[in-house]
Design goal:
The protein is an alpha/beta fold and 205 residues long. 34% of the residues lie in helices and 16% in strands. The protein is built from 7 helices and 7 strands; from the N terminus they run H-E-H-E-E-H-H-E-H-E-H-E-H-E. Strands 3-4-2-5-6-1-7 form a 7-stranded parallel β-sheet, with helices on both faces.
Length: 205
């Protein structure tokens, strides 16, 4: 079914949404978010969803994997950091370009508009915390017109006061991207982060 003009108009004219879901493991956060994602895709047939799950949980294994090479992404950014004034930065990596072109699946069934990024390096080893953080920041900087689900952020981002993380929260409302962020603890959050948050969802027994 092609996207309706009303759907496109509504999503482009509103502020983007950021939902923080907090609670310990086993209290239903992921199940509730999966239902929310499916409803989101039904409501917005012109949108995509990216799932970044650092634990690689079984609940997301039925969805297609998105190409992502964290080594090439981090390598490019190291080169950018070494640039002298006036030097031209290297072109975006294949991983970054893939994120930029995610809008090409408009109108496809909901299930086919979910892509997951697995926490693996090109050699099959698990990403470390720095690589997971670089992956999330790459998604934030390059993916638009969809929803990002960032699972278990406390696992790989300890310092929410870093310049890069604060920049993500500051720009959420000004991008065409919605967010659902899972955190086992809200303690790293600072007042400036809450300014970008639309809703906090608590899960407890």
């Amino acid at each position: 079914m092609p996207p309706k003009a009303a759907d496109i108009q509504e999503i482009e004219n509103r502020d983007c949404i950021c939902i923080i879901s907090s609670g310990f493991q086993g209290h239903g956060k992921t199940h509730a978010t999966k239902q929310l994602i499916l409803q989101y895709l039904e409501r917005h047939p012109n949108r995509m969803v990216i799932v970044f799950d650092p634990k690689n949980e079984d609940i997301w294994h039925s969805y297609n994997t998105l190409y992502f090479n964290v080594w090439e992404v981090m390598g490019r950014h190291k080169l950018i950091e070494k640039l002298k004034p006036g030097e031209v930065p290297p072109p975006p990596t294949k991983s970054e370009m893939t994120l930029m072109k995610m809008v090409d699946l408009t109108g496809k069934p909901a299930h086919s508009r979910i892509r997951r990024i697995v926490p693996l390096c090109p050699d099959g080893t698990l990403m470390n915390s720095q690589q997971k953080r670089a992956t999330l920041l790459c998604i934030a900087n390059n993916f638009r017109r969809g929803l990002v689900f960032a699972e278990d952020v406390n696992d790989y981002i300890k310092n929410f006061e870093s310049e890069e993380v604060e920049k993500v929260f500051k720009t959420i409302r000004h991008t065409s991207c919605d967010w659902v962020i899972h955190m086992q603890s809200l303690s790293p959050m600072r007042p400036i982060h809450y300014e970008a948050v639309t809703m906090i969802r608590m899960h407890f027994s």
